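TA notes. Do not distribute before section.
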Amino acid sequence: MDYLKTVVPSQLIAERGSNLVVINPGSANIRIGLAQHDTPLNIPHCIARRTSQVPKRNVVDQMLNSQVTTSQHVERERAYDVIASLMKIPFLDEEVANNSFPRKMGRVDAFNQQNSRKDVAFSWTNVYEKEPMPSTALESSSSMNHGIIKESMGQHRNTDIKELNSSERKFREFICGEEALRVSPTEPYCIHRPIRRGHLNISQHYPMQQVLEDLYAIWDWILTEKLHIPRSERNLYSAILVLPESFDNREIKEMLSIVLRDLRFASAVVHQEGLAAVFGNGLSTACVVNMGAQVTSVICVEDGVALPNTEKTLPFGGEDISRCLLWTQRHHQTWPQIRTDILTKAMDLLMLNRIKESYCEIKEGEIDAVAVVHSYEDGMPPGSHKTRLIALNVPPMGLFYPKLLVPDVYPPPPRSWFNDYEDMLEDTWHTDFPRRSDISDNFYPGINVGLPMWESYPVLTTKPKKEEKIGLAEAVTSSILSTGRIDLQRKLFCSIQLIGGVALTGGLIPAVEERVLHAIPSNEAIDMVEVLGILDFGRDAWIHREDWIRNGIHIGSGRKYKDSYFLQAQAMCYINS
């Protein structure tokens, strides 16, 4: 333990890289891998659980409000026309057929080899468990016979196999990752997504206990099946939880409990995603823009410290761009006459995400492409439809004009969920609270809800993190200007760092630079904006696992972790001795 407090962090990483697992949970995907690996696994963060009967709804998320109101529809069309004016393309309802110039074809012929891979259809998941090979007894006996006897035995064997396949096949209890998204809606499975829009997906239809059980099941499956780390060996491994800024304190505590108590890691360290991005690129000061599938967050970091008052959370991301792509093509009647529904058929979302990543970019002029669209009807082989997609530069511009995206409304978790048991700014450790003393050394792979230490704490009201109703450029500008210091503002405007899958969109960097510069008020002395295209942790943060279970965020000396308002704004590690 003394060695851990004195060792140089880079030396520690080098020594422990082979037994250090990095976990970065997101709303749509989880990135996970060993620290020594160059690239982590990127796996859809979902699980399909078998039900006793075919469900009415294949997806268990919540009662999603997917209906666009009349006012939202008008605002969306208005946003489209604003973007069309900027991109120098026809307006939404402008008749393109009257143009004398043909449309440009974008990025099709030059990428034939890649397109052949991108155009391959997804296949339905086999929901049955793998059966052992049939006994070779029949083969042995048949080899001893001749002619008709051999032929009759072969027929008998084939009949036995058919009967085995039809009557004794067993459904898999749960399916994780991309396979879960490719389960046919006709199969007796429900898809669960434990995280939505940057928060645990808790609702009256998806209780907290089930959310936590699903998180545990997904992470345990990845560790066992993908990283080949069995439960019996996890006490030899440590975990780094790299968490997005959207999570609240209680959500972080629950995930930390899953890692230490249920997954049985020997130790864990909590890292803020923005800080990890800054450190990973060798910076100490930057404005980090994390552009995920469902949430876009902005936070400023100064000298390695996240500034909580600069945090902005925008309720849209890459999946919303994919939905906008579908709406755009349907409006222009370029989408095939097929039933594409990303809310009830997760396979359709996979297809749209791939089309978006392949063809959407931000660039002036008409951006068209010929693509293969697939139809996935219940239980049927996929159908292929070659079509010409247009206005492919409009959907990603929804990042700057979010009214174009019309994000689905996900009901927030119950207000009681945000009643944290400890306020990070209050010295609650002075108060005498009853503690649980009978801490058992026996841990079971099944998950429990919460740790016993939290049950007896008084409830202190906190507010859920606020979501902003503004575009990306306004969010970045507002975040940086909120620092209040001109020297820091100038440095941050020239150190904007884009991370996340959406950040790979072609043409996004110059678009961010241009639009952020125009969003800066004229009275501000800022004339330059630049986008920049080693995990570290404090030595004093290490504490024994028993201290975490008994004392929570209070360490043995009575000092409390309160250097930042948010739990994840500093690196904290918990050791299982």
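Switch to the second chain here.
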Amino acid sequence: MNKLYIGNVSAEASEEDLETIFERLKIPHSGPFLVKTGYAFVDCPDEKAANLAIERISGNEELFGKVLEVAISVPKSQRSCKMQIRNIPPHMQWEVLDGMLAQYGTVESCEQVNTDTETAVVNVRYAAKDQARLAMEKLNGSMMENFALKVSYIPDETAAAEGASGRGRRGFNARGTPRSGSPGQGARPKMQSDIPLRMLVPTQFVGAIIGKEGATIRNITKQTHSKIDIHRKENAGAAEKPITIHSTPEGCLNACMTIMEIMQKEAVDTKFTEAIPLKILAHNNFVGRLIGKEGRNLKKIEQDTGTKITISALLDLTVYNLERTITINGTLKESNKALEELMTKIMESYESDMAAMNLQSNLIPGLNLNALGLFPSGAPGMGPSMSGMPPHGAHGGSAYGCSPYGGEGTFWASKLSASSQPFSGQPESETVHLFIPALAVGAIIGKQGQHIKQLSHFAGASIKIAPAEEKDSIQRVVIIIGTPEAQFKAQCRIFGKLKEENFFGPKEEVKLEAHIKVPSFAAGRVIGKGGKTVNELQNLTCAEVVVPRDQTPDENDQVIVKIIGHFFACQLAQRKIQEILAQVRRQQQPKPTSGGQPPQPRRK
């Protein structure tokens, strides 16, 4: 199938006008033009002719004052997980392309298409249609190094035909003169690190790092095969600006050291007398493991490298900024060695967390981890962020496990979502009553209610503290109303906050009691025959699940189910119970009858 869609067609255009353009550009077509209002269709004899039409006409040819857009015509029913991306800069680095594609989902394959054009063309297959659709929406027409990307679907039948030849090889075929680390090179370079390196630099050196008309930063990018983002517009007036480096671990180190050398040279030229230590940012989740028991890990790195390493205080963290600043004092050589060891530790922690989260994503049914936005695009520590975040903190900020700056998508979440099943349609809102120590209420609310407002905004949930039932109550109830994803985020942050504020001991696991309400007629299904279901729930989730006997249903004919356990145990139990309730609701729905006729009585 090589049918082309021609968009942005003027109402004055005729079949002859379009045919004239094709003949002038020597593009063969195998049938008449079907002209509609605002668009047209035409068949090409083969894929090569279709690609030629897209390259030469789309965005380049004007007809009656309108610039034509050309793409492969794919009916909605045939839109697959596979798409073609055209007009890719020929010198684009492998790491940059991988990172760009991975923002929108799990990439199963990526093969280059041989064309006669200077720019590169690739066929990309995502793990799911919604991921491909998102990539299509975000990438089509987006600018990359002064090249406007052109993205079109590849229909199912074409994808199936091409899959046989391209399957099993994730990479590009050689085209023309190979360029080191670019799509034109047959052999893949080392894989990009899942965790970008985040560093802080004094604001006065940002201009020197960028260079005249961006020449310096382009040179660093080219030499180190990395993608470097300088977030100079964030935190106006701040003394330091964050820089994010996407590359292989070796590329990140080289780019970082090059930036340090540029700053030191600029300091000499401008007679800047203060020391310029190397500062990197890491998510608080990793810091405990970096430090080690009684600080042993950090002391060993200092001894091995001859550096002095300090880490910013926990007090600097907020719900929107969970990054800690790690400052390395030493010579460039010593700092480079220390950074290498720190990055190794962070990667080990990241891989451990990934394994644990993959396990949980398999266990928790119905939870769309993509929608959670909990995990940054690079990793839980040093990655890019979800867009649309509220005002940032001191260093660009990040929400619980969320990314520190806007606009690059949720890469880590997309990796996990491949194994989690998203909800069909719009997820329903749920209400959970979470019991916390009465003394912790102030920590959850925050000064002038700031923390609970931020948490509610971040999670997308309604979060309220219920009044105390008695004057001397040792527990208070947090009422959380929101979708399953909102519940996950809100409860996760509350569990974490109680640990951070030392309401539980350093070796004590945070275990809380949660109450959810279920219809009284469904309580028996949660319990199961002879308590079989509830026992299985407890064995699977490691949570204590209790349906109190002799409950009097409330005014909505609902009863309480109690869940007690650590965070993931509680989440898993909640999801499993909601799954049981969904089955009950489905079974209660009247079955549709064909033709709208009432069911006929059975013959005896």
